[in-house]
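cron nightly-structures :: item 1 of 1
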Amino acid sequence: MSYEYTYELIRPLILKKGTPVLVTLHGIGADYHDLREIIAPLGDRVLQFHIQGNIPIDHGYAYYLLDYTNQSEQEAIQDARTSLHCFIQSELRELDLLDHPVCLMGFSQGAILSSILLVDYPQAYRAGVILNGRKVDSLKTNLSYEHRDVYVIQGKQDQRFPIPSGKELANYLSSCGCSVTYDEFDVGHGINDAECRAVVKWLRQEFEWSEPNED
């Protein structure tokens, strides 16, 4: 199991005590640039930590691939979960950021992993933004039901993970102790401008930032 990932770290000009760390996990076939534009409006309010999958596929990368002859879907996802958690915590420790609030944001495969990380390691991650994901049960039997805020978004025309998948995931996260906000947007398996604005607004509220002044 590899704990090494290519990543991009974008620091604010002034790193304050308590500056949130926003960790992004992309969808299959993408790379660490994929979600950067969504959170660009936050500027120096966050430290951006974009992690790329370590398995090349098509023109991008994945965090795990399913091979039902050797392991179940849960086992493959849990292996990736463990690897990512160890990597994230190691990098945060190296950068002296373990006392900063950490928010996970994932799309598709990254959304699945983000939700599993939130459930399995609630002490490590304060919040999450889950974009076009679906539920995968935790393999852990001693879940800790600590409060975390989660924003779950699903595309109304998403044929890969339809609306029922998003609702099931939102209900599952609620049952695991998360405070869930659920939204649907008029988009397929992707992200539109309205969704981007909603994510930025939710993050501002989550970390108690004021809205920017309108000219």
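cron nightly-structures :: done
The chain has a mean pLDDT of 90.
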